[in-house]
Amino acid sequence: MTTAKYSEAPAPVPAAPAGSQIIDLAAGCFWCTEAVFQQIPGVQSVTSGYMGGTTVNPTYKEICDGNTGHAEVTRIVFDPAQLPLATLLETFWKMHDPTTLNRQGNDVGTQYRSAIFYANDEQRTIAETSKQAAAADFPRPIVTEISPTTTFYPAENYHQDYYNQNKTRNSYCAYVITPKLDKLHLKS
C-alpha cells in the first residue's frame, strides 16, 4: 500500500515568503543536495525536482533514461538577510565535484550535471563571481553550467525529504549522504 507521502504525484512547491529568494542548484543526486541544504541556517525550504530540459512534466523514470535534458535539482528558498547567496554557493562548491562533466561519483548522465539556475541578473553575477573564486580550490577546470531558471518540475513526493525519511533504510544514505554531511560538519 502506498501512502500519500510516497506517492508518484509531484510534490507541491512551497511558497517563498516575502523577502526570500529562490535559487535552483544541480549537484548530482538531489537526495544529497537536499540533505545538505536542509541543514544550512537561513534556508527556509528545499524541494527536489527537475529543470533545464525539454520534457514537460517529466517523471523520475524519464529523467533516469537520460533523454529529457533535465537535471536533478533542488529548489532552495532562502532568507538573503540571514544567508547571502554567495555564502550559500560556498557550500554548493564544497558538497560536490564541479569539475566532472555529467557525473557525480557513480551517478552518470546529464541528469547529474553541475548547474546553477539563476532567477535574475544579480544572481547570475554572484554565481559567476563565486565560480571564479571556487576555481582556485580545484585542480581541474569547473564545468558547472550557469543558466537562467527554466520551468521547475517538482519531483514525486517520495523523493522529498528523502534522507530524513530513509537514512536507516537505504544504504545509499548511509554510504553516500551521511559521509557528505559529516565532511561538511553538518548534523546527520
List keywords for this structure.
6 helices; 188 residues; two-stranded antiparallel ribbon; alpha+beta; disordered N terminus; Peptide Methionine Sulfoxide Reductase, Chain A
Overview of the molecule:
The protein is an alpha+beta fold. It has helices at residues 30-37, 60-65, 85-95, 121-134, 162-166, 171-183, and strands at residues 21-27, 43-51, 71-78, 103-104, 107-108, 114-118, 145-148, 153-154. The chain has one domain (16-183): Peptide methionine sulphoxide reductase MsrA (Peptide Methionine Sulfoxide Reductase, Chain A), CATH 3.30.1060.10. The protein has a 6-stranded mixed β-sheet with strand order 7-6-1-3-2-8, covered by helices on one side. A two-stranded antiparallel ribbon has the order 4-5. The two termini are 29 Å apart.
Quick structural overview:
The chain is an alpha+beta fold.
Given helix and strand content, the structural type is alpha+beta
Between the first and last Cα atoms, what is the distance in angstroms? 29 Å
- Note the main sheet: 6 strands, mixed
In the CATH hierarchy, the third-tier topology is known as Peptide Methionine Sulfoxide Reductase, Chain A
Strand content: 15-25%
Q: What is the string of helix and strand elements?
A: EHEHEHEEEHEEHH
Instruction: Tell me what the CATH architecture is.
Output: 2-Layer Sandwich
Helix content: 25-40%
Strand order of the largest sheet: 7-6-1-3-2-8
What is the highest CATH level, the class?
Alpha Beta
Strands, count? 8
